[in-house]
Amino acid sequence: MRLILFGPPGAGKGTQADFIRDRYEVEHISTGDVLREAMKNETEVGLYAKSFMDKGELVPDEVVTEIIRQKISAIGEGGFMLDGFPRTLEQARSLGSILADAGIGIDAVIFLEVPDEEVVQRITKRQKIEGRQDDTEGVIRNRLRVYKDQTSPLKDFYEKTGVLRTVEGVGQISDIAGRIDGVLKQLQ
Ligand code: AMP
């Protein structure tokens, strides 16, 4: 199964991604995780990405697209779930070409729908628990703005291709997981 998990920052993508990975044996590919790891190791990509991430801006398309290209090529025939990619229409188009070149397609784009106020509350809470550097209040607001401007148009993009599945991302974690499960079971 090949999936995209998509939604605003704080929608619970990471939590639900763990559940989907375990249950459907797909490889979890998170561009945010790859970039944070690169930052920690102070690689060239990591140092470059840091300035964008610290401000809540998107890392340039070429950088993240190259990460995805390499990951997808390494996976070959296996299933995967993209988490945090694509985040712009340009990235979605590049992904389309990468997949077309590989002769594969996306089975579903799971859109985790969470209202704005809930998102701000959740990220503020996460900041207190995890201390993520990009979770300060100003940066959170910027990330939400970036999401609205650059990422939310992907909803229409994938709706048009018929792969979008909207899941209500509010409620108990297990209930949300159950809703996703309902969608994914139909694909099997
Ligand atoms: P995440 O962990 O998915 O919330 O990503 C954390 C940060 O990494 C984002 O705020 C961006 O700065 C950067 N990032 C992750 N994925 C992408 C992407 N697909 N395009 C651009 N920047 C990204």
Question: Secondary-structure map with pairings?
Answer:
Blueprint: E1 2-6, H1 13-24, E2 27-30, H2 31-40, H3 44-55, H4 61-75, E3 80-83, H5 89-102, E4 108-113, H6 116-130, H7 137-151, H8 153-160, E5 164-168, H9 173-185
Helix pairs in contact: 1-9, 2-3, 4-5, 6-7
Overview of this protein structure:
With 188 residues, the chain is of the alpha/beta class. It contains nine helices and five strands, in the order βαβαααβαβαααβα. The protein has helices spanning 13-24, 31-40, 44-55, 61-75, 89-102, 116-130, 137-151, 153-160, 173-185; strands spanning 2-6, 27-30, 80-83, 108-113, 164-168. Strands 2-3-1-4-5 form a five-stranded parallel beta sheet, with helices on both faces. The longest helix has 15 residues, at 61-75. The radius of gyration is 16 Å and the shape is globular. Bound molecules: adenosine monophosphate. The site of adenosine monophosphate has 17 residues, from helix 2 and helix 3.
List keywords for this structure.
5 strands; single chain; 188 residues; 9 helices; alpha/beta; globular; 61% helix; binds adenosine monophosphate; five-stranded parallel sheet
* General shape: globular
Beta fraction: 5-15%
Number of helices: 9
Overall pLDDT confidence: 92
How helix-rich are the residues, as a percent range? 55-70%
Provide the gyration radius in Å.
16 Å
Structural class: alpha/beta
Query: Strand-and-helix sequence, N→C?
Result: EHEHHHEHEHHHEH
Small molecules (ligands, ions, cofactors) in the structure: adenosine monophosphate
Instruction: Kindly state the number of beta strands.
Output: 5
Low-confidence stretches: none
Strand order of the largest sheet: 2-3-1-4-5
Reported for the largest beta sheet, the result is: 5 strands, parallel
Distance between the amino and carboxyl termini: 8 Å
